[in-house]
């Protein structure tokens, strides 16, 4: 069965960086895009960007351009999301999620990881 | 980015009764070349990730009970739960995937009256 297992919770100081991992299993990793979505406490879901797990092609949300980096390791079936210059507004649960289709483009997520809480606090 | 607005923010419905959530987008999400609406619905329960319910505006995801249905086109959509069950309590989000900058609605909290 499709599973996405994320790394554990993190506490970071303002200005630091955080790197979250997402290990995929149960499907052909390189056939599907991986989205990253975050949710600040009590807020709506915010789409951060998407990586083509096969080609490595990336599309970032404009609001995070320059601070977010998405990568993947095809030998280990792991996707990564790194966010730099953290501020209190980055405190959120971060999710990775697989795209629904394996057609080459990216559409919407279907299977989601369990989420990783990132807390930014001095 | 397309702004996605849901209404109401919350609603309380008796068990077995109908619940309807509205979702409006600031521009049409209907792609004319394939006549598909690039809109999905998700359900989120406390402490859990979102669960996909509906995509293309009205296509039910495999395994989703048929009491959930999506309707609408262009910039005006609805999610209906025909007969609310206790396990349907949660927050429901609509999501547009028409533009590169994907966006979600603010969520609608569904509770039992």
Offer a quick outline of the entry.
With 122 residues, chain A is mostly beta strands. Chain A has strands at 3-6, 10-12, 18-25, 33-39, 45-52, 58-60, 68-73, 78-83, 92-99, 109-112, 116-120. Helix content of chain A is 0%, strand content 51%.
Fold and architecture overview:
Chain A has 122 residues and is mainly beta. Chain A is built from no helices and 11 strands. Chain A has strands at residues 3-6, 10-12, 18-25, 33-39, 45-52, 58-60, 68-73, 78-83, 92-99, 109-112, 116-120. In chain A, strands 2, 4, 5, 6, 9, 10 and 11 form a 7-stranded mixed β-sheet that branches. Chain A has a 4-stranded antiparallel β-sheet with strand order 1-3-8-7, with no helix packed on it. Chain A is globular and about 40 Å long. The model of chain A has no long low-confidence stretch (mean pLDDT 96). Chain B has 113 residues and is mainly β. Helix content of chain B is 0%, strand content 51%. Chain B has no helices and 13 strands. In chain B, strands 2, 6, 7, 8, 11, 12 and 13 form a 7-stranded mixed β-sheet that branches. The mean pLDDT of chain B is 97. The termini of chain B are far apart. At the A-B interface, strand 5 and strand 10 of A face strand 7 and strand 12 of B.
Task: From the structure above, extract its key features.
heterodimer; A: about 120 residues; mainly beta; four-stranded antiparallel sheet; 11 strands; globular; B: mainly beta; seven-stranded mixed sheet; about 0% helix
SSE order and pairing:
The complex is a heterodimer of chains A (122) and B (113).
Chain A: E1 3-6, E2 10-12, E3 18-25, E4 33-39, E5 45-52, E6 58-60, E7 68-73, E8 78-83, E9 92-99, E10 109-112, E11 116-120
Parallel strand pairs in A: 2-11
Antiparallel strand pairs in A: 1-3, 3-8, 4-5, 4-9, 5-6, 7-8, 9-10, 9-11
Chain B: E1 4-7, E2 10-13, E3 19-25, E4 30-31, E5 36-37, E6 39-44, E7 51-55, E8 59-60, E9 68-73, E10 76-81, E11 90-96, E12 103-104, E13 108-112
Parallel strand pairs in B: 2-13
Antiparallel strand pairs in B: 1-3, 3-10, 4-5, 6-7, 6-11, 7-8, 9-10, 11-12, 11-13
């Amino acid at each position: 069965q499709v599973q996405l297992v994320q790394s554990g919770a993190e506490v970071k100081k303002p200005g630091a960086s955080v790197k979250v991992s997402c290990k995929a299993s149960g499907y052909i990793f390189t056939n599907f895009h991986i989205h990253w979505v975050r949710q600040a406490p009590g807020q709506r879901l915010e789409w951060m960007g998407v990586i083509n797990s096969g080609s490595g092609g990336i599309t970032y949300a404009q609001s995070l351009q320059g601070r977010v980096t998405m990568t993947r390791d095809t030998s280990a079936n792991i996707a990564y999301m790194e966010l730099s210059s953290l501020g209190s507004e980055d405190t959120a649960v971060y999710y990775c999620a697989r795209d629904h289709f394996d057609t080459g483009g990216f559409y919407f997520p279907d299977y989601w990881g369990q989420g990783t809480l990132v807390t930014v606090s001095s | 980015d397309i702004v996605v607005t849901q209404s109401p923010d919350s609603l309380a419905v008796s068990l077995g009764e109908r619940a309807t959530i509205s979702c409006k987008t600031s521009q049409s999400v209907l792609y004319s070349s394939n006549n598909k609406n690039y809109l999905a619905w998700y359900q989120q329960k406390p402490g859990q990730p979102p669960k996909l319910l509906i995509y293309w505006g009205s296509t039910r995801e495999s395994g989703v009970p048929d009491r959930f249905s999506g309707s609408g086109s262009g910039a005006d959509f609805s999610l209906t739960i025909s007969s609310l069950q206790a396990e349907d309590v949660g927050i429901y989000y609509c999501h547009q995937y028409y533009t590169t900058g994907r966006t979600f609605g603010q969520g609608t909290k569904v509770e039992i009256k």
